[in-house]
């Protein structure tokens, strides 16, 4: 699965009484689906997944899945401290039609999180997961920072396709990219080199309503074997293979441009919840090879991203969403809403970032 681009890790909306506000979740996801983001991340750290019950996690996964446009890659945050519970939630996400499982590093028993423990955990999950797996490293929250050397070793597993690296360490990104260059994999992309998801398949009556079959065009023409560059058809959608390696995405918007220059292929950004287009513009400029414009766009959001997402956290992100026309609302305790002074600061930071 292609992971190039910008992914907002959607927040979980609540009513004032603390119950899940499904209509607002649907509205936010539908609006993100109309932006140029590559996909949606559900139940990430910004989604307050750790503050939800098991049943609430399942409800959020279902509502978000139903509201997401078929052409957007769907990533489910399924990491729980044990491998067994992680796999249960991953299997449920697969049943719903998610594309990727994002599995954060277990961290509660920090002193026992030796390389052997992490290798065993991720290999067990990857072996049994019905979905491709991404490692999720967020040391600011977990207190555990998975070493680059360990990520490089894990990257050899065929079902571990990438990492979300949220440490903000650009040199670590470069090290992981350099250390995994030998890994060659293929992902189906559209004619415009966007990701192809199974949800893009058009149900066919002759196939009992199931999605269409991947049919190489060369096979339709009578060729015995398609070449690696051949075009294929998925229920009317023309696709082609694109070579991808171990895909490194980052999680710090204030480090987006330098991380892309270091070899990252995209980002999962809390700041994109409030300003998806502003984040995408950095990626688009970099993709077009316009380094000067990418740096100019990076400078535009750097201070706001650092303060709102990096320091004020989820309450800051949710208020920024409110200010920019999405629904943010309140976070769950122990997270507290912003004070009036902090709200004014957020508004000032976003005055030129209204999208």
Helix percentage range:
25-40%
- What value does the Rg take, in angstroms? 20 Å
| Share of β-strand residues | 15-25%
For the biggest sheet, the summary is: 8 strands, parallel
SSE order: EHEHEHEHEHHEHEEHEEEHEHHH
Number of helices: 12
Low-confidence stretches: 204-228
* Cα shape: globular
Distance between the termini: 28 Å
Instruction: Please state the average pLDDT score.
Output: 91
Tell me the structural class. Answer: alpha/beta
Beta-strand segment tally: 12
Strand order of the biggest β-sheet: 1-12-11-6-5-4-3-2
Word description of this protein:
The structure is a single chain. The chain has 355 residues and is an alpha/beta fold. It is 39% helix and 15% strand. The protein has helices at residues 22-33, 54-67, 83-96, 115-128, 139-142, 148-154, 170-179, 217-220, 256-261, 276-287, 291-323, 340-349; strands at residues 5-7, 39-42, 73-77, 100-104, 133-137, 160-165, 185-190, 214-216, 232-234, 237-244, 247-250, 266-268. An eight-stranded parallel beta sheet has the order 1-12-11-6-5-4-3-2. A four-stranded antiparallel beta sheet has the order 7-10-9-8.
Ordered list of secondary-structure elements with their pairings:
Elements: E1 5-7, H1 22-33, E2 39-42, H2 54-67, E3 73-77, H3 83-96, E4 100-104, H4 115-128, E5 133-137, H5 139-142, H6 148-154, E6 160-165, H7 170-179, E7 185-190, E8 214-216, H8 217-220, E9 232-234, E10 237-244, E11 247-250, H9 256-261, E12 266-268, H10 276-287, H11 291-323, H12 340-349
Parallel strand pairs: 1-12, 2-3, 3-4, 4-5, 5-6, 6-11, 11-12
Antiparallel strand pairs: 7-10, 8-9, 9-10
Helix pairs in contact: 1-2, 2-3, 3-4, 6-7, 10-11, 11-12
């Amino acid at each position: 699965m292609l992971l190039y681009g910008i992914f907002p890790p959607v927040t979980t909306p609540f009513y004032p009484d603390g119950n899940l506000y499904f209509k607002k979740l649907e509205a936010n996801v539908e609006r993100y689906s109309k932006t140029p983001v590559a996909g949606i991340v559900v139940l990430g750290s910004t989604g307050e997944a750790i503050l939800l019950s098991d049943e609430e996690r399942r409800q959020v996964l279902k509502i978000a899945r139903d509201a997401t446009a078929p052409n957007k890659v769907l990533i489910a945050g399924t990491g729980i401290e044990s491998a067994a519970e992680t796999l249960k939630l991953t299997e449920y996400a697969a049943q719903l039609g998610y594309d990727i499982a994002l599995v954060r590093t277990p961290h509660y028993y920090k002193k026992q999180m030796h390389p052997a423990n992490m290798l065993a955990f991720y290999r067990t999950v990857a072996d049994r997961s019905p979905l491709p797996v991404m490692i999720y490293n967020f040391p600011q929250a977990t207190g555990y920072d998975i070493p680059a050397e360990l990520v490089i070793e894990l990257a050899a597993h065929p079902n571990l396709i990438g990492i979300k690296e949220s440490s903000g360490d650009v040199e670590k990104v470069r090290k992981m990219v350099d250390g995994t260059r030998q890994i060659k994999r293929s992902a189906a992309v559209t004619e415009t080199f966007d990701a192809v998801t199974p949800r893009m398949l058009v149900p066919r009556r002759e196939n009992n309503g199931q999605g269409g079959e991947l049919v190489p065009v060369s096979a339709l023409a009578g060729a015995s074997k398609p070449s690696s560059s051949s075009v294929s058809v998925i229920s009317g959608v023309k696709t082609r293979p694109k070579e991808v390696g171990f895909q490194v995405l980052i999680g710090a918007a204030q480090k987006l441009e330098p991380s892309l220059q270091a070899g990252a292929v995209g980002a999962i950004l809390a700041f994109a919840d409030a300003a998806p287009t502003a984040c995408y513009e950095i990626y688009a400029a970099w993709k077009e090879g316009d380094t000067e414009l990418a740096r100019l766009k990076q400078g535009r959001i750097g201070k706001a991203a650092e303060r709102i997402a990096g320091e004020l956290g989820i309450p800051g992100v949710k208020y920024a969403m409110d200010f920019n026309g999405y629904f943010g609302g309140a976070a769950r305790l122990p997270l507290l809403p912003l004070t009036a002074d902090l709200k004014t600061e957020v508004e000032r930071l976003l005055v030129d970032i209204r999208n």
